[in-house]
Amino acid sequence: MSYVAKIGDTEYPTLADAFAATDKTGDTVIELLDDINMTGKSWTPVSVDGYHGQGVITLNGNGKTITGLSAPLFAGGFAGKSGIVIKDLTIAGADINDTTNTQGIGAFINCVDSMTRIELDNCHLKNSKIVSTGGARVGGLIGWTSGYNNPNDGPVDTKVTLTNCSVENATIEANGSVGGLIGHAGANPATYHTITGCTVKDSTLKCTETGKSWRVGDLFGTANVGQVTVDAATSASQNILTQENASTQKPEDSIFGRKEVGTAGLVIIDNKVVAAGTAYAMAILLTRTPTKCLRRFRRVIG
User: Fold this and answer.
1) pLDDT tens across 107-129, in order?
2) pLDDT tens string 19-62
3) 0.85 exceeded by pTM
């Protein structure tokens, strides 16, 4: 018998078997031992149950490729100290067609809800197709993200880190927000995204929702009330972005489809603030030099 994954010294013949053996009240590290071909096979996306004590699941891809997925790798997770870490893994030839999900779809992770740690490092989506007709926000890597800032039983700061990841030759279509990396980033202020050295290229991104503001972006469909920081090395090229009958035209900056930052959102690209919620107005003012502030104050009081 051949084995494709292991946890500690125990080896498993299928990836599903390895995930079934994860620690339900702590952390688990899974090592891939070989490429996996899922063409023609069913797959149930993995959920991380932080609400009942499950911790961080780490999947070390070790440079391997999972081919032919018909559903996302992870459904996501919720609450507690849960998290998902994926390293050195390629998903290729995925064909995901979803009609029921109304929240978020991504080839690696569907939805991130109040999870403390989400890391994708050297992860790649190639030659794949994701189509959603149920109203979900869709990204090549992750669909939807949110932290939790209720002071009564929170907060849960959700930190999403994408490092040296890529999406290449992908077709992504949905009637919600569509992004090459993430569909909808930051549905709650306690969501923090750091994007470093990532690329999206030669892909077709399409939103079929009509009569709404433009929400298709090379990297993000929508940047919402969380924080998004993108470094200078992250890039997008040769992508086709379309939206049916959008009420507003495609923005000049195609990295984000729309920036709906509200009160608490913050978007930083190459160390420059490009969008900030009203909560940041005073902070931005206070970063001015004392001389400029004094001059403004003098003008106000006459």
Assistant:
1) 999 999 999 999 999 999 999 99
2) 999 999 999 999 999 999 999 999 999 999 999 999 999 999 99
3) yes
Q: What is the 3-state secondary structure (H, E, C) of the chain?
A: CCCCEEECCEEECCHHHHHHCCCCCCCEEEEECCCEECCCCCCCCEEEEHHHCCCEEEEEEEEEEEECCCCCCEEEEECCCCEEEEEEEEEECCEEEECCCCCEEECCEEEEECCCEEEEEEEEEECCEEEECCCCEEECCEEEEECECCCCCCCECEEEEEECCEEECCEEEECCCEECCEEEECCCCCEEEEEECCEEECCEEEECCCCCCCCEECCEEEECCCEEEECCCCEEECCEEEECCCCCCCCCCCCEEEECCCCCCEEEECCEEEEECHHHHHHHHHCCCHHHHHHHHHHHHC
